[in-house]
Amino acid sequence: MKSLRFVRPFPISTVSFSSATLFSLALLPALFLANAALAADAAPLKVGAYAMDITPENFPISSAGSLRARMVKGVHDPLHARCLVVDNGSTAVAFAVCDHCMIPREIMDEAKSRIEKTVGIPAKNILISATHTHTGVTVTPVFEAEVDEPYCDFLTDKIVEGIAEAWERRQPAQVGYGSGHDATQVFNRRWFTTTEYTNPFGVTTDKAKMNPGGNIDALINPAGPIDPEIAFLSAQTPDGKPISVLANYSLHYVGGIPGGLLSADYYGEYATRLAGMLGADGEFVGIMSNGTSGDINNINFRLGSTPRREPFEQIQIVAGSVASATKTAYEEVEYHSALPIDVRETEIELGVRKPTKEEVAQAKAYIASQEDSYKAIEGVYANETVYLADFPDSVKVKLQAIRIGDLAIVSTPCETFAETGIAIKDQSPFKQTFVMELANGYNGYLPTPKQHEWGGYETWRARSSYLATDAEPKIRTALLGLLNDLAEEK
Q: Which GO MF terms does the UniProt record name (predicted)?
């Protein structure tokens, strides 16, 4: 039986679990038997890890993560592409988790192609993702932020170098996985409230509100669940020396960074804290990937107000709490020196919510009437409307499923809601599964159809939220198909 890994404040009516869950349970005996047979035939595992510094060399530089353009002048703590390679002699997989808000598919595809040519790891066996720190360099155009093109080339080079270095550092290893929990740091940020509000398009019927404020009396219920699981893959040397931990937690980001500075946010601090708790040396690479956190943040709105913190203080609190929960689960991990590794990848086509000609004309008229069209929220979305008019009618997204023993890792290129991650975990035929979002590209928020009906920031049409309202069930179905295909091949 799977351990309790999430908290639901209400039943999820938009997802059905029954048939898929029964199918998954039916597969488990065959899956376990196949694991034993394949592990016996697999060569001893080798693992390599490396934290490649991707901090920009030139300042000032554009930083994403805000409705307005921001130029930063320095760094609070370095940015990294934290890289991990797992190789069983016949199949190798590689991960690169980068301290960025979001990364476009073009950069990731270019890096994968070069890695395949130079290192030999197939492009389909490489998963690259962004952590979603809101104090990284702009490499994806969203809202007013403009891409820094020279840095895009720099980032691509560094991802390639980082995975190549991890490959070179491969050493005999044993690998296991675990699951910790920390419900004290994740809160659903979308709420049903008793107050109405007008969205940037002049609509007053939105039912859900992001970050509803400190008026406790106006709050009804969160519009979705949380997922407090800290799932992780752990690699050690045969004698127990920590090599790397690849963790996954569904928390959007923390913030509280001093103005005008770049930072890896809590993702970087987690790596530092975990290394200290495990007594690891300087070669250990802790990695925190983002789970399904499109509707999750670190603010408990039930309190009405949050304690005043010094810069970076809240990041330290969160990182310490999550690292501590990871360590508790880490001590129970069972390790294996040989495991089967397999990968599935697919590409699906999704519709785009494009504005009408009338909406574009109204947006252009608004922009023309303003001295600073980004000053008001209406102007921000007017500009987004104009940008989306030039989008194609559909886009192709890349999805991936990686199996390492009884652990499965799947990817989504979106800011995915927690309920989607929970559904995938529940219906997966593997003993443990986690979802890495903002991986293999960036395609904006991924609300469920019901969340689209409820409205709110994450559904407002923009380059940050443009997929058709049926995109979530299509992505979820495709990912479960990849997982079931992996399980059937055992």
A: N-acylsphingosine amidohydrolase activity
Delimit the domains of the chain by residue range: 22-351+391-488, 357-389
Contact 101, 305 (CB under 8 A): no
In 3D space, the residue among 265, 287, 345 whose CA is nearest the CA of residue 51 turns out to be 287
Taking the mean position of all CA atoms in its chain, how far away is CA 138?
Answer: 17
Summarised one tens digit per residue, pLDDT across range 6-59 is 343 333 333 333 334 433 434 444 444 444 444 445 679 999 999 999 999 999
Two tokens at 421?
């991650």
Cα gap 84→440, rounded to integer Å: 16
Encoding tokens for residue 287? 């990695």
340: exposed, middle or buried (Cβ count in 10 Å: 0-12, 13-18, 19+): buried
Residue 53 token pair: 């510094």
Is the pLDDT score of 144 beyond 90?
Answer: no
Tell the burial category of 483 from Cβ atoms under 10 Å away from its Cβ (0-12, 13-18, 19+).
buried
For residue 406, report the phi and psi dihedrals to the nearest 5 degrees.
-90, 5
Distance, CA of 63 to CA of 419 (rounded, Å): 29
194: its two tokens: 């008793």
Nearest to 178 by CA among 419, 425, 400, 434: 434
How far apart, in whole angstroms, are the C-alpha atoms of residue 341 and residue 159?
A: 22
pLDDT band at 1 (very low <50, low <70, confident <90, very high): very low
pTM above 0.85, yes or no: yes
Question: CA nearest 327: which of 284, 293, 279, 384?
Answer: 279
Helices in 119-177 by DSSP H: which ranges? Answer: 149-168
The tokens of 302 are what? 């039930």
Cα 409 to Cα 428: distance, rounded to the nearest angstrom: 10
| Strand-strand pairing, 187-188 and 296-297 | antiparallel
Task: Give the DSSP letter of residue 419.
Answer: H
Question: What secondary structure letter does DSSP report for 364?
Answer: H
3-state secondary structure of 323: helix
CB atoms within 10 A of CB 407: 21
- Farthest-apart Cα atoms in the chain, separation: 70
